[in-house]
Amino acid sequence: MNDIQHSVNSGDKVDLTNCDREPIHLLGAVQGYGCLISTSSDFMINHVSANVLDLLGLDPSVVVGGRLIDLLPASTIHDLRTKLQLIRIDTGAARIFAMDVMGNGALFDVSIHLSGHSYVFEFEPKVSTEDRDEMALVQPLLSRVKRATDVIGAAREAATAIQVLSGFDRVMVYKFAEDSSGEVIAERCGSQMEPYLGLRYPASDIPKQARELYKRSLLRLIADVDGKISPIIPPANPSGEPLDLSLSVTRSVSPIHLEYLHNMGVGASMSVSILKDGELWGLFACHHNSPRYVDYERRTAIELFAQFFSYELLQKSEQQIRQEEREARRIHDHLMVRLSSGEDLYEGFEVVADELAEIIESDGLAVYSDGRFIARGLTPTHEEFLGLSRFLNTVPTGQIFTAENLVSVYPAADSFADRVAGILAVPISRTPRDYIVFFRKEVTKSVNWAGNPEKPVELGPNGARLTPRKSFAAWQEIVHGTSSPWTDSDKRSAEALRVSLIEVVLKLTDEANLERRKGAEKQELLIAELNHRVRNILNLIRGLVSQSKNGATDISAYTELLDGRIQSLARAHDQLTRKEWEPSPLRELIDVEVSAFISDKSGAMNVTGDSPMLSPEAFSTMALVIHELVTNSAKYGALKSNTGTVSVDLQIAGDGSLHIKWKERGGPAVQAPTRRGFGTTIIEKTIPHELKGTVATQFLLTGFEAAIMIPSGHITAGTPHEPATAYASPKPENVESQNALGDVLVVDDNMIIALDACDILKDHGASETHMAGSVEDALALIEKNSITFAVLDVNLGSQTSVPIAEKLAEQNIPFVVATGYGDTDAIVTSYPPALIVKKPFTAETLLREVNATFALQR
Q1: How do residues 60-96 score in pLDDT, each as one tens digit?
Q2: What is the topology classification, in CATH, of domain 327-444+481-515?
Q3: Under 8 Å between Cβ of 57 and 43
């Protein structure tokens, strides 16, 4: 078949010096069935082939240096110029069939393409002028290919079609393997021809450079291996460069390749590229016992058929993949049904082993799950597999691993090479690393090579080049220690199996191991959560310390305000932490608050309606709100009077949201405050900022009223909890900023912490501050304002501030990240470069990171 061996042709502009052999020096020439003229863009003639006199009647010695428009009829020049409009560098050649080039009735097929800065015109005499339509044959032949059920069947039909179109004695479909060697997978030949079906060819038969040319030039014809060769005149341009004939349809081939064809007894050959996804999948390789010319018009039809076949090949491959996916889904469904009863993969091994064997053919199968090993067929022992599993743990996580010669990558496998040569390992977990492993035994793999692929270089008639093999008898290469190959289909099935088994095994293994791991996992989670929440609550308390001074007239009043608010938080956290930070009853929060501050008037509080449970986030927020409502009422409102009453109505709406109506009656006459103190701010602003709810207050003469709505996401069912301990905050230290902060953004889902941070920054250089409690609000503020610095809390409820940090980094706006989590390394890796300030932060610690951030920017 080797018409393609050493098929780098004359005029190919490639470098063969890296082919581990002597470079093949190429001479510019064309085959005698066509002639060539090369011109510049203004039609000045640069090169011609020596046979232009024979075919066109033009004297080469006169033509070179002249103008093409002076040598050809005006009508011909007009038609050529029109075709030039169609030429683009990436579209190959423009074609004209049956053209009267010289105006004397002699017809030519013409090809025009670009070669560097030159136009290359090639002329082939029209051998037949009969009325015919080769293009009409393409569709019915292609229909036969479409009816094939698989790739091999399609290749057989395509070989028949190419033989019908070309008339060659033999047509082969040659497919490249992953190692770049090739194999004849389909063949159509006469009885007088030696069959090559099933023969293998080494990768060296078609050098890499030649493969690239086959992707650019899709068809190559050698009409007569003994045909006359016409050199290019002159051989090089004034700069010493030969004319690039890479896309020439008539260019000659190397003497080595012609010698090879002689050795085969071939009189003519043709090769047509088969592309898949833009890459060279294979070739149609054609032989004829005698010279055979296929005119340009018919070659165009052959080329068109090959392009359509490439499309059909892609369709067949995709159909095969879809069939494999359907089969994998069927097995997946069976596994889910069989294993959903509660058995794990180890215990249900015998049940599922037959199912697994249907997916991938193997000689042995093993499951390694949670340190347990079970196998059947030809496999390593448990001890041998333990070493193999350590090796498998070094391969990339979450990927299947295949080896046809395991010993070559894992030398210790030599101890069980009598049973196992190749493996396909399917990881079915991350930690611990568990596997389903398919094993294949060694096979004596007989590969029918078309000659010895390791035959050394010999001296031949063309010099110190690789002489083509003189014998075409199949040469058998016996490979030891190797299994049959894992095909792409095997790998796709294994990947589908991996996904399915991870779903099954993780479900069953997690259930089986849940109790055993629960203690350790729970402890780690609680420690991390405790660290986060302690830092957050300390920072919250620090904010209360700072903000409470605004409503105090003296140290005694300040202490009373601060103590009340901190105790309110402590009571709320006592309730939350009774049963591990779960939802808690709002009624209990109200009862505790009332009894703590107005025990002698507790009967004046009347709570009606539903008994809602609040999420921990909402519970902490409402603790401060209820505290301010109760204390304000006790100081200024209905609870100040023995005759006053407070009614609290709790209603859960149809959409799940909670509506609270606070109504005071019978107390002193109410007057709206002239300014908003911190207590009023807590009542009116905290719920919208932290819970995305609403608050409406009315200072009526008959008594204060408030309408509060808390969204459904914070209203849940649960049980009361035992008390826990609250925490205190260190006193902030005074520190000065070294920078003019400008317009500052503070992002924190806790309004008090955000207010405190704003105050710190405003007191130390910020011209204006903005607060946001969500990613969306923060991004809107960045878009609307000229932010010059930002402080970002890591955790914004159900969000993180990473998108905000990325936006700031994109606009080169400096920022620091605030967090209550202890693992700052994990935080740094997920954020753009930034410094970290841990909660609870003080003015000193916050400004230290602010100054350090600006120092880094300088």
Answers
A1: 887 888 999 999 999 999 999 988 887 765 567 899 9
A2: Beta-Lactamase (3.30.450)
A3: no
